[in-house]
Amino acid sequence: MNPNDNLWQTILKDLERLYNEETYNELFSPVTSTFKEQNGLITMVVENDFLKNRINKLYIGKINELATKYSKTPVRFKFISQSEVEPEPTLTDRKLTIDYRQGNLNSTYTFDSFVVGKSNMFAFRMAMKVADQPGAVANPFYIFGDVGLGKTHLMQAIGNYILDTNVEKRILYVKADNFIEDFVSLLSRNNNKTEEFNAKYKDIDVILVDDIQIMANATKTQMEFFKLFDYLYLNSKQIVITSDKPASQLTNIMPRLTTRFEAGLSVDIQVPDLEHRVNILKRKIATIDANAEVSDSILEFIATQFAANIREMEGALIRLISYAQTFNLDITMELVNDALGALLKTRKKSDALSDNNYDKIQSVVSDYFQISLQDLIGKKRHTKFTIPRHIAMYLIKLKYNIPYKTIGQLFSDRDHSTVLAACERIEKDIQLDSNLKFALDSIIKKIDSTLSKS
Ligand SMILES: Nc1ncnc2c1ncn2[C@@H]1O[C@H](COP(=O)(O)OP(=O)(O)OP(=O)(O)O)[C@@H](O)[C@H]1O
After folding, report:
1. pLDDT digits over 433-451, tens only?
2. Least confident segment among 16-20, 169-173, 277-281, 351-355
3. What spacing in Å lies between the alpha carbon of 34 and ligand 1's midpoint?
């Protein structure tokens, strides 16, 4: 018996419960065993194209949700018809197939499971195009956005899609810090490791490099990455990169890399609005526990409390559902307070701490723009200093709403009208300049995290 048959039998039981008898008997019950598995993709065979298309169009999402629920390892299902069954590969063919999905890509990070809204629509559409024609549409494809907003998910969805279309494709997902580690260990060992390094990084079709900003200051690693980048690029291999900021704002990454990143296509992911966040939560419930009943008002409450980071929002939902399951309780607002009380309290505390922290805002802004605090507050008039200065004034006004005159005193005794003009200017520019808007959002996040630690 194929090891995935037990999984399929378990899924069948749920399908029988979920759908009417006629559908179940026609579509699912005749499929008694799995056909094969490769790279986490389990293939099932049905009698004809009509059945195959119905399942793949209407029921595959639910089947994969159940697979995620019941399988210990990440797997997905695919249905083919009898006429598509190919003869088994010979032993030598099989040896050539490297398992590129296991331990490399998270198979739940797919386009299917990515909830689309205004904040990520462009990024999503372009990612689909890149996945459809790797190496041809946008190379490199650069995704940026704040922590926990879905960059890794979207990047891996590209990898999973390419693999689903062609299981032989070699897709390498690597976090920038692992690339640094691999390179450092290459330097510290003998030469025959070079071959291993090259086999891992060069003998591939697609590279997905996550959190490139981590390479800041690692000059030798950047040089090596630069060589690899050029090699892959010249061979039309798709390169996908994620970062917490636009390429133009990466600090301590060599310009020969950042300019190459800018030459491809950059897309950003913003914080989703409330309705979008609630939709993400609804989708997550289905994967955590399809039977959990969570009212819209509770979902809205969670989406409001954990607005800036989807990972945190998802964590709160998982905690709530697990809590309800453990104590066998209905999910009410009272239970939300019990289950999430500690998390909510930490957030309140960090808000309360935020009084009178003007100097912290000034130092986060100066750090972000890599200028000294003295220059931020002082009188120099180069735009390198005036833009960060205006941003710091604007943020203090936004966060504390203290008089313009008081803000002026924090910046070398400037007068009320200078601060007012600076705030109005920033307010206007963020409507027009998405890079500025992005910088502001990142700085606000950093301020919040600094204040919560104090
Ligand atoms: N639009 C979305 N639809 C469904 N799930 C999402 C979406 N956006 C984010 N998530 C989920 O939020 C979690 C965090 O996403 P992810 O790890 O991709 O964020 P990230 O931007 O790469 O964060 P980091 O900067 O920390 O690497 C994941 O579980 C992901 O599935």
Report:
1. 888 888 888 888 888 777 7
2. 351-355
3. 31
314 lines ligand 1 (CB under 6 A): yes
Q: Does the annotation place 69 within a ligand binding site?
A: no
- Cα separation, 220 vs 199, in Å, equals 20
Statement: the pTM of the whole predicted model exceeds 0.90? no
In three-state secondary structure terms, 343 is helix
Neighbours of 243 (CB within 10 A): 26
What is the average pLDDT across 69-88? 81
Task: Report the alpha-carbon distance of residue 129 to residue 133 in Å, rounded.
Answer: 6
- Binding residue per annotation — 152? yes
In the predicted model, what is the mean pLDDT of the chain?
86
Dig out the tokens for 383 from the structure: 């735009």
SS3 of 123-166: the string is HHHHHHHHHHCCCCCCCCEEEEECCCCCHHHHHHHHHHHHHHHC
The 10 Å Cβ neighbour count of residue 317 is 24
What average pLDDT does the segment 33-44 reach? Answer: 82
Protein residue with least CA distance to atom 25, ligand 1:
147
Longest dimension (CA), the chain: 81
CATH number belonging to domain 111-268: 3.40.50.300
329 DSSP assignment: -
**How far apart are the CA of 150 and the centre of ligand 1, in A?**
3
Average pLDDT over residues 257-278: 93
352 vs 346, more confident: 346
In angstroms, the CA 113 to CA 156 distance is: 11
Question: How many angstroms does the Cα of residue 398 sit away from the middle of ligand 1?
Answer: 28
CB 100 within 8 A of CB 163: yes
131, 106, 112: which is closest to 39 by C-alpha?
Answer: 106
Could you tell me if the ipTM is greater than 0.85? Answer: yes
Q: Is the pLDDT of residue 189 over 70?
A: no
Q: Where are the domains of the chain?
A: 3-84, 111-268, 274-331, 350-452
Residues 350-452, CATH architecture: Orthogonal Bundle (1.10)
Angle at 70 between CA 67 and CA 72, to 5 degrees: 100
Domain 3-84, CATH among 3.40.190.10, 3.30.365.10, 3.30.200.20, 3.30.300.180: 3.30.300.180
Ligand-binding annotation for 61, yes or no, is: no
Nearest-CA residue for ligand 1 atom 9 is 150
The annotation status of 408 as a binding-site residue, yes or no, is no
Residue 48 dihedral angles phi and psi, to the nearest 5°? -145, 175
Closest residue (by CA) to atom 1 of ligand 1?
115
**pLDDT confidence bin for 192, thresholds 50/70/90:** low
